[in-house]
Design a protein that fits this description.
This protein is of the alpha/beta class. About 35% of the residues lie in helices and about 25% in strands.
Length: about 270
């Protein structure tokens, strides 16, 4: 197991329980206690946790894995989801993307699909962009900014280091001035009664505004988020047109989502 994989696992264990003991972690990862101590020390230096005598506790009141440590979880499923969503986007459309690992994969899939004229609308000319992407995610903007065929629009706002998302009044001001054909939302939880949710209330409010500005709302998430609740509600299922997930979703969950009016696409 590489250091990066150990760090991912340690942070996930810490997120689940709020605290972690060195011996417990060493047994779970099948490595020496000395290795775990070094890992915890290095993670503490990056302010990803707080070291204690014999272990570590979460950093701050609300704990959330930084985006760079979540990117390896369910990676194949997220890539399949992203490719399916990219195929649903028509040339010339305006697409909104919030932050997250799955929407980052969607951005990459869109970049590949619309690269070098691989997807052209009937009668399209070179006068306009193949696609316009509006995002509040700094990492997505950075990846797409070098793609000349894609017009990238970023919101203003205050950056959250965990997800690279811009939030706040400046973000709201920009989103209030745009109209989207489709928005692709990454979420932290999907509940048949409460709708879709995020860990942070400021990110949830921006995602909600994205949905309000779009003609079509697509939620992308791996099946591990199904039935999971998070702190802040984004919107109800009645505002979602399509949910794209992997085949790990249960038939019961699909039935409940369909009954609520959400079309479910599994890949």
């Amino acid at each position: 197991m590489s250091k990066h994989e150990r760090w991912n696992t340690l942070l996930e264990l810490l997120a689940a329980s709020g605290k972690l003991e060195v011996e417990e972690a060493a047994a779970a990862l099948d490595v020496s206690a000395a290795t775990i101590r070094r890992d915890l020390d290095e993670l503490a230096e990056q302010q990803l946790l707080v070291r204690t005598r014999g272990g570590a506790v979460v950093h701050g009141v609300s704990y959330e894995l930084p985006l760079r440590y979540k990117s390896t979880r369910h990676a194949p499923e997220k890539r399949r989801i992203a490719e399916a969503v990219a195929d649903l986007v028509a040339p010339g459309e305006v697409v909104g993307l919030n932050g997250g690992t799955t929407t980052t994969e969607v951005a990459r899939a869109l970049a590949l699909r619309f690269a070098s004229g691989r997807a052209e609308a009937p009668g399209a000319t070179s006068a306009g962009p193949a696609l316009t992407v509006v995002t509040n995610a700094l990492n997505i903007a950075g990846e797409l900014a070098v793609r000349p065929q894609i017009k990238i629009v970023t919101t203003g706002g205050v950056a959250r280091p965990q997800t690279y998302e811009l939030v706040g009044p400046l973000t709201v001001g920009v989103l209030n001035e745009v109209v989207l054909d489709v928005v692709v939302l990454g979420v932290d939880g999907v509940d048949a009664e409460l709708g879709v949710m995020a860990h942070q209330e400021d990110e949830a409010s921006i995602s909600r505004l994205f949905a309000e500005r779009a003609s079509r709302v697509v939620v992308v998430t791996d099946s591990s988020k199904m039935g999971r609740r998070a702190f802040a509600r984004i919107c109800g299922l009645d505002q979602i047109d399509l949910l794209v997930t992997d085949t790990g979703i249960t038939s019961e969950t699909v039935a409940r989502l369909t009954e609520a009016g959400v079309k479910v696409l599994t890949v």
